[in-house]
C-alpha cells in the first residue's frame, strides 16, 4: 500500500498535466521548495538560488537576455553534479581495487512552467521567463519561483542601550521597506542562579516582549539584560522574505535620569496640525570634535568622559529629537556615519525623511529631515560657499567686490562651509511650497567679516530659488550662524541691509578690512526671538542659533521654552550626562498666514 501511495505522489509531482489542471498551482504548493530569483533591470545578470534534493545549494548567475533553454541546460548539468563527493570516493575505490560505486548520475529533465501551468518556451529571455509563481521542475523535484522576494541586507542594533531610551535598529532591505517589516523583540531571561545561560547550556533563553513595533524602549527591569530582534522583511503586498535575528552586543544599562529636554517634551507630545509646521534647529556637536584630547581637557573638562562618547550621546539625541514630534529638523555638525547609521534609521522610524550635505574637507555636515506624511521633496539646491562664489554667475557682483580684498578673499575661499536648501511641497495642499535652508557659518570669534560674505552668498542663492525658480515661496532659514544678536550678520539678516562702514567689516583688524554695502529682499524674523544663550560651555555662553522665517507668509504659533538655567548648569555646563550637545535645540510651531 505504501509503495503504491509513494508512486502515485511521485506521478502527481512531476506531471505538467496536473499543473495545468490546477491553474498553475500544484496540490503540494505549500510543501514546495523555493527557487529564489533576483532580477533587477539595471543589472545585466539575474541570480538563481535553490537547494537540490540531496541538500546541496546552487547559486547561479545568468545573463538576463540569454534564452531560457540555455539556463535550463546549465541547471540540468549542475543538478547532475549533485553527489560529486560520492562519485570521487567511487573512483578512488576503483583505483585501489575496491568495490565500484554507483554509476554516474543521469542528467535530469529540467523545465519551467508558468503560473497557469504552460511550459515556458526555451527561446524566451531569462528576464521574462522567470516570473513570480512559476514552477521550476528538476527531475521529480518542483520549486516555486520567488522573483525578487523581500530580503534584509542589513540588520543592526545600536552598541549602547539605555533604559528609558528608544532602541532604533538599522534596517536595510531589498524589495522591501522597513515600515512593512515585522518586528519581534526579546529580552534575555534573567536566570534563577545568576548565570547567563539556560540550565541546558544552550545559550540564553529569550522572552518575547509585547508590541511588535519597529522601535523598542527597554524599561528599568531590563537593566543588565541583552535584547534580541527578529525581523521579517515585507513589501506591503503580503509578501514576506526569510527572517533574520540580531542580538545586542551588550546589556541594557541604566539611563541618566532626568534630561534637559524632558520638560520640553511636555509641549510636543503630538505632531501639530496640517496648517502648522513644527521646526527644530540644532547643532548636535560632531563626534569628530567631541572625541579629541583638546575637547576632553580644555573645552569640556567638566563633562564625564563617558558622556562625550558617541554611543551615549546618540541615545540622548535620538530620544530628544523623536520627542519633539517635529515636521522639519535642521541639524548642524552631523558626522556622516552618524547620519547613515544612527539618525536616518532612527528618525525614519518616526516618519521623517533625511537629507545630508557634507563639508568637503570635514567628516561632518548638515542634515535636514522632513515629515513624510506632511511634505514631499521637490528639489535640492545645496552649495559650498567657496565654490559658488568662485564659479556661479549669480555671485559675480560680490565676487568682483571681494577681489579688491585678496586677504579676505583667500580666507573665504579656504572655508568649507556649506548651505543646504530643500524645496518641499505640502502633501495635503500642493499649492503650498516652502524653501527650507540650513547652514553652519564660520566659527572664529574674529570672523565677522567672513560670516558676512558667507551669509551674502547664502541669501543670494536662496533668493534665486525662492524668487526665480519658485516665485514667492516662503523661506525658513535655520542654522548655527555663530553670530550673536549684536553682530553684523544678525543685523543684515534681520534688516535686509548692512552698511559698508559696519564694525564687523574690520572684525579681524585693519589688514583684513573689506568695506562693502550689502542687501537682500527678504523680510526675515527670528522665530524664537533672541534667547540669552543657545550655546553654553565653560568659557562662553551666547545666542548663536536661529530659525529665521519669512514674516510675510509665516507666523509663530508657539516657541517651546528652552531648558531653565538651573537645568543647563546642573552639571556646570554643556554637554553633560543629561544633555548631548554644547548647543540647545530651538523648537517652534509656525503656521501659514
From TrEMBL:
Where is the protein found, in the record's own terms?
A: Mitochondrion matrix
Does the keyword Nucleotide-binding belong to this entry? no
Cofactor(s) of this protein: Mg(2+)
Give the compositionally biased regions (Basic and acidic residues). 236-247
A Pfam family (short name) is: Exo_endo_phos
Q: Which terms under GO biological process does the entry name?
A: mRNA processing; nuclear-transcribed mRNA catabolic process, deadenylation-dependent decay
Q: Where is the Endonuclease/exonuclease/phosphatase domain?
A: 281-583
UniProt superkingdom: Eukaryota
Q: What is this protein called?
A: 2',5'-phosphodiesterase 12
- This chain is encoded by the gene named Pde12
Amino acid at each position: 500500500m505504501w509503495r503504491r501511495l509513494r508512486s502515485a505522489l511521485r506521478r502527481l509531482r512531476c506531471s505538467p498535466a496536473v499543473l495545468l489542471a490546477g491553474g498553475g498551482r500544484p496540490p503540494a504548493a505549500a510543501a514546495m521548495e523555493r527557487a529564489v530569483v533576483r532580477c533587477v533591470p539595471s543589472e545585466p545578470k539575474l541570480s538563481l538560488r535553490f537547494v537540490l534534493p540531496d541538500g546541496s545549494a546552487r547559486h547561479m548567475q545568468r545573463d538576463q537576455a540569454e534564452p531560457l533553454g540555455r539556463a535550463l541546460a546549465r541547471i540540468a548539468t549542475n543538478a547532475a553534479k549533485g553527489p560529486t563527493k560520492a562519485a570521487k570516493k567511487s573512483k578512488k575505490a576503483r583505483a585501489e581495487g575496491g568495490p565500484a560505486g554507483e554509476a554516474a548520475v543521469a542528467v535530469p529533465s529540467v523545465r519551467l512552467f508558468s503560473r497557469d501551468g504552460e511550459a515556458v518556451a526555451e527561446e524566451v529571455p531569462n528576464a521574462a521567463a522567470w516570473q513570480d509563481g512559476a514552477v521550476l521542475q528538476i527531475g521529480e523535484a518542483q520549486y516555486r519561483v520567488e522573483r525578487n522576494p523581500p530580503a534584509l541586507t542589513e540588520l543592526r542594533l545600536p552598541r549602547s542601550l539605555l533604559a528609558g531610551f528608544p532602541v532604533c535598529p538599522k534596517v536595510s532591505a531589498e524589495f522591501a521597506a522597513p515600515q512593512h517589516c515585522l518586528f519581534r523583540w526579546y529580552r534575555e531571561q534573567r536566570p534563577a542562579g545568576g548565570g547567563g545561560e539556560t540550565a541546558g547550556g544552550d545559550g540564553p533563553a529569550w522572552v518575547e516582549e509585547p508590541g511588535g513595533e519597529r522601535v523598542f524602549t527597554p524599561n528599568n527591569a531590563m537593566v543588565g539584560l541583552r535584547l534580541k530582534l527578529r525581523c521579517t522583511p515585507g513589501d506591503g503586498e503580503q509578501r514576506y522574505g526569510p527572517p533574520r535575528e540580531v542580538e545586542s552586543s551588550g546589556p541594557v544599562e541604566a539611563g541618566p535620569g532626568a534630561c534637559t529636554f524632558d520638560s520640553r517634551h511636555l509641549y510636543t507630545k503630538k505632531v501639530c496640525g496640517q496648517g502648522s509646521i513644527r521646526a527644530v534647529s540644532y547643532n548636535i556637536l560632531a563626534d569628530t570634535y567631541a572625541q579629541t584630547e583638546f575637547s576632553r581637557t580644555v573645552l569640556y573638562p567638566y563633562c564625564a568622559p563617558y558622556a562625550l562618547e558617541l554611543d551615549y550621546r546618540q541615545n540622548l539625541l535620538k530620544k530628544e529629537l523623536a520627542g519633539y514630534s517635529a515636521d522639519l529638523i535642521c541639524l548642524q555638525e552631523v558626522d556622516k556615519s552618524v547620519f547613515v547609521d544612527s539618525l536616518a534609521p532612527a528618525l525614519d522610524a518616526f516618519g521623517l525623511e533625511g537629507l545630508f550635505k557634507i563639508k568637503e574637507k570635514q567628516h561632518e555636515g548638515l542634515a535636514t529631515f522632513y515629515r513624510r506624511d506632511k511634505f514631499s521633496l521637490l528639489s535640492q539646491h545645496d552649495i559650498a560657499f567657496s565654490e559658488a562664489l568662485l564659479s556661479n554667475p549669480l555671485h559675480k557682483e560680490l565676487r568682483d567686490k571681494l577681489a579688491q580684498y585678496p586677504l579676505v578673499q583667500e580666507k573665504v575661499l579656504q572655508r568649507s562651509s556649506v548651505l543646504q536648501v530643500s524645496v518641499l511641497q505640502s502633501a495635503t495642499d500642493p499649492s503650498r511650497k516652502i524653501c527650507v535652508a540650513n547652514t553652519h557659518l564660520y566659527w572664529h570669534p574674529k570672523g565677522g567679516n567672513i560670516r558676512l560674505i558667507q551669509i551674502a552668498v547664502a541669501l543670494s542663492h536662496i533668493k534665486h530659488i525662492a524668487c526665480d525658480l519658485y516665485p514667492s515661496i516662503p523661506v525658513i532659514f535655520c542654522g548655527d550662524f555663530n553670530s550673536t544678536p549684536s553682530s553684523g550678520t544678525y543685523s543684515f539678516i534681520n534688516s535686509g541691509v548692512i552698511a559698508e562702514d559696519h564694525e564687523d567689516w574690520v572684525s579681524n583688524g585693519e589688514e583684513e578690512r573689506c568695506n562693502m554695502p550689502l542687501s537682500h529682499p527678504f523680510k526675515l524674523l527670528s522665530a524664537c526671538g533672541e534667547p540669552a544663550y543657545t550655546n553654553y560651555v565653560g568659557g562662553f555662553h551666547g545666542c548663536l542659533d536661529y530659525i529665521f522665517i519669512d514674516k510675510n507668509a509665516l507666523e509663530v504659533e508657539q516657541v517651546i521654552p528652552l531648558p531653565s538655567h538651573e537645568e543647563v548648569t546642573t552639571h556646570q555646563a554643556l554637554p553633560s550626562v543629561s544633555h548631548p550637545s554644547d548647543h540647545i535645540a530651538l523648537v517652534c510651531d509656525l503656521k501659514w498666514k
